[in-house]
Amino acid sequence: MSTEHYELLHAEGTTTPIKGWVHGVPLEEQAHRQLQNMAALPFVGPWIAVMPDVHLGKGATVGSVVPTRGAIIPAAVGVDIGCGMAAVRTTLRAKDLPDNLAQLRSSIERGVPVGNGPGGDHRRMPDSIETRLTQSGLVQQLEAIKARHRKIRTDKVDRQIGTLGGGNHFIEICLDESDAVWVMLHSGSRGTGNMIGTYFIERAREELARRVLGFHLPDKDLAFFMEGEPLFDDYVEAVSWAQDYARHNREAMMSRVLHEMRHRLPSFQLEKMAVNCHHNYVQRETHYGESLLVTRKGAVSAREGELGIIPGSMGTCSYIVRGKGNPDSFHSCSHGAGRVMSRTAARQNITLKQHREATAHVECRKDASVIDESPAAYKSIDAVMAAQTDLVEVLHTLRQVVCVKG
């Protein structure tokens, strides 16, 4: 396996290497410093893998794969636990789509609650989603976790399963190179996952205050749990729950989108090509014969033959990919294009005219509220894909015709 695509990034004050697939894409100084901070921790290693969509994150860098030995950093997983992508190919073709795509977008927005706050929750949960929630056992599992951690709330579980949320989450109708119609969406464990992540990050900071460290911790956001501690096991259980909830959330949303499409479009079937993958999570894996806890924050598992999704932005292409199982990246690839502007910077620098021009070919929101998600806020997806040709093989290139944002 050739390793010529990655660069060894400068890691001052640490013997843990940082391998970056960043050729031809920007790496901001703050993100690089954040990577160095993680590499300085004695339980991190044998190296950190950096994906081409890398950018500054809260505590840990988005677009990073961080293996650890005997410890977990909750902030490295983040608060959108289990966030990921789902996509399915249909038997529909471009000619089957209506001329007025605005009606299709409105129909999807009515069928799937979108946005943050109460407006993005179910007013009345559809029977199919209620049945899914009951049969999954997710409510009972979370109640068992709450019995040990009373501050974790359960009131959002039923209101938010099958809902999109806001920010960079989306639902898209896309066409591939053969004009086949795909449905693709991006969301995670919603408010409950956020509460779980926030709660355990705070608990890790509390534990840090009681620890006697034999090393310097450069950032309190890198507070951790050690294997063997009760909070370590509780956190692993809670993360596993959030990942399951996120997967069910995407499946429920996909069912609702397809339901709306069946009302408005000609009869169609689903083809075998379907993907549902996380990009914010931690799990135990074996690499080079060693058992490691691998945290992917804004990174997707790309084992040999494994299918994944790498989205662009509101106005650019997305990709269905197959992993090449590159061991240097811990069998991982990027989770998207990655931001080049913070949300604040995007709102200050991108005009509404620029946003409308960049999304002119897409039926989507054109208002100021989505400026921070405009294509100019993101890296070039073409450059990102070019930087990771030894990590994934492109199977399909998708161009969106409808984009729903919260």
TrEMBL record:
<comment type="similarity">
    <text>Belongs to the RtcB family.</text>
</comment>
<keyword id="KW-0547">Nucleotide-binding</keyword>
<feature type="binding site">
    <location>
        <position position="169"/>
    </location>
    <ligand>
        <name>Mn(2+) 1</name>
    </ligand>
</feature>
<feature type="binding site">
    <location>
        <position position="405"/>
    </location>
    <ligand>
        <name>GMP</name>
    </ligand>
</feature>
<keyword id="KW-0464">Manganese</keyword>
<dbReference type="Pfam" id="PF01139">
    <property type="entry name" value="RtcB"/>
</dbReference>
<dbReference type="InterPro" id="IPR036025">
    <property type="entry name" value="RtcB-like_sf"/>
</dbReference>
<dbReference type="GO" id="GO:0005525">
    <property type="term" value="F:GTP binding"/>
</dbReference>
<feature type="binding site">
    <location>
        <begin position="311"/>
        <end position="314"/>
    </location>
    <ligand>
        <name>GMP</name>
    </ligand>
</feature>
<dbReference type="GO" id="GO:0170057">
    <property type="term" value="F:RNA ligase (GTP) activity"/>
</dbReference>
<dbReference type="GO" id="GO:0006281">
    <property type="term" value="P:DNA repair"/>
</dbReference>
<dbReference type="GO" id="GO:0003909">
    <property type="term" value="F:DNA ligase activity"/>
</dbReference>
<keyword id="KW-0479">Metal-binding</keyword>
<keyword id="KW-0692">RNA repair</keyword>
<dbReference type="InterPro" id="IPR001233">
    <property type="entry name" value="RtcB"/>
</dbReference>
<protein>
    <recommendedName>
        <fullName>3'-phosphate/5'-hydroxy nucleic acid ligase</fullName>
        <ecNumber>6.5.1.8</ecNumber>
    </recommendedName>
</protein>
<dbReference type="GO" id="GO:0006396">
    <property type="term" value="P:RNA processing"/>
</dbReference>
<feature type="binding site">
    <location>
        <position position="279"/>
    </location>
    <ligand>
        <name>Mn(2+) 2</name>
    </ligand>
</feature>
<dbReference type="GO" id="GO:0030145">
    <property type="term" value="F:manganese ion binding"/>
</dbReference>
<feature type="binding site">
    <location>
        <position position="318"/>
    </location>
    <ligand>
        <name>GMP</name>
    </ligand>
</feature>
<feature type="active site" description="GMP-histidine intermediate">
    <location>
        <position position="335"/>
    </location>
</feature>
<dbReference type="GO" id="GO:0042245">
    <property type="term" value="P:RNA repair"/>
</dbReference>
<feature type="binding site">
    <location>
        <begin position="279"/>
        <end position="280"/>
    </location>
    <ligand>
        <name>GMP</name>
    </ligand>
</feature>
<comment type="subunit">
    <text>Monomer.</text>
</comment>
<feature type="binding site">
    <location>
        <begin position="335"/>
        <end position="338"/>
    </location>
    <ligand>
        <name>GMP</name>
    </ligand>
</feature>
<keyword id="KW-0342">GTP-binding</keyword>
<feature type="binding site">
    <location>
        <position position="80"/>
    </location>
    <ligand>
        <name>Mn(2+) 1</name>
    </ligand>
</feature>
<keyword id="KW-0436">Ligase</keyword>
<dbReference type="InterPro" id="IPR052915">
    <property type="entry name" value="RtcB-like"/>
</dbReference>
<feature type="binding site">
    <location>
        <position position="186"/>
    </location>
    <ligand>
        <name>Mn(2+) 2</name>
    </ligand>
</feature>
<feature type="binding site">
    <location>
        <begin position="168"/>
        <end position="172"/>
    </location>
    <ligand>
        <name>GMP</name>
    </ligand>
</feature>
